[in-house]
Specification:
Keywords: RNA-binding, Transcription, Transcription antitermination, Transcription regulation. Belongs to the NusB family. By secondary structure, the protein is an all-alpha fold. It folds into two domains: 172 residues, no CATH class; 96 residues, Orthogonal Bundle (N-utilizing Substance Protein B Homolog, Chain A). Helix content is 68%, strand content 0%. The chain is built from 15 helices and no strands. The longest helix is centred in the first third of the chain and has 41 residues. The two termini are 32 Å apart.
């Protein structure tokens, strides 16, 4: 809203909701890379076998990769298939050149060559291979990153989170139980989803009122010299202090210090911590905080 100079709350809120929904699309796209790479290799082996002058190796290839227990498990997983269909995730069908690039990178990797040194599939080795393949070959791939960056504006921020979730899920897979791997819900509950929307609305609608809380307390700082990102984070944190009674003070401060480390300048977290700490003391002294529940102060 600030960068565009817009005051269209409804339009920006729709973008916020879409960006949250797109997080799940990114998850499905990333987990689908493993499925699509395996299927590309399976197609390649099938075509090679049928060649008129197929070599002995082409007639009897090492199928350990396509027979990987975990990759087959993911391919047959109904939770993934249903979510992909529901969200209409067909990016790799339309851009299969990226899958071919990832397959080539896979075959050239030490992870793959070590794994393919024999023809025996065991669950533990197969799972370790898939985890290493994802973390060392797929996730760091520059071409894939460029594709994701161009595809959705907000995905760059979401990639580390999605990759971490997928690795945790791969580690916990039990190939004898389909329920051991399922597409995670985007929100824990309705309250979780509503919080993001309410935080945006309350901050946007009260931003001048919220800004006064810290501008009046920073006489040594020229407001024009405080970065725009810092001011937005301060407004959001103060909004949580004053208008979200169930969120503990310490939780709010810790969260925005982490956000500052990710999005702001190197000194922002120290600046924000100092401002928020002083504000809390003032709010407590003037009984401006209305936190409810144990341990919220």
């Amino acid at each position: 809203m600030h960068q565009s100079g817009s005051d269209d709350l409804q339009k920006t809120e729709k973008f916020l909701i879409a960006s949250m929904e797109n997080l799940q699309d990114l998850y499905l796209l990333m987990i689908s890379t493993l499925i699509e790479i395996r299927e590309k290799e399976q197609t390649f082996l099938d075509i090679s076998r049928k060649k008129h002058l197929a070599t002995a190796e082409e007639k009897d290839p090492n199928t350990k990769f396509v027979d990987n227990i975990v990759l087959k498990f993911l391919t047959e997983n109904k939770s993934i298939a249903n979510a992909v269909e529901k969200r209409k995730i067909n990016d790799w069908k339309q851009n299969d050149d990226y899958i071919l690039l990832l397959l080539e990178s896979t075959k050239n990797s030490v992870v793959y060559k070590t794994y393919m040194s024999n023809r025996i599939n065991t669950f533990e080795e197969d799972r370790r291979f898939v985890m290493d393949l994802f973390s060392e070959v797929i996730a760091p791939n520059d071409k894939l990153y460029e594709f994701l960056e161009d595809h959705r504006l907000t995905w760059v921020d979401d990639i580390p989170l999605v990759n971490t979730i997928i690795l945790k899920q791969l580690k916990a897979i039990d190939h004898t139980k389909e329920s051991s791997f399922s597409v995670p819900a985007l929100f824990r509950d309705e309250e979780d989803e509503e919080f993001a929307i309410q935080l945006f609305r309350k901050t946007a609608l009260r931003e001048y009122e919220l800004a006064k809380e810290f501008i009046d307390r920073t006489p040594n700082w020229d407001p024009d010299r405080i970065s725009e990102v810092d001011t937005i984070m301060l407004k959001m944190a103060i909004c949580e202090f004053l208008h979200f009674p169930s969120i503990p003070i310490k939780v709010t401060i810790n969260e925005y210090l982490e956000v500052a480390k990710e999005y702001a300048t190197p000194k922002s977290s120290l600046f924000i911590n100092g401002i928020l700490d002083n504000l809390v003391k003032d709010f407590q002294r003037t009984n401006k905080l209305t936190k409810s529940g144990r341990g919220l102060l």
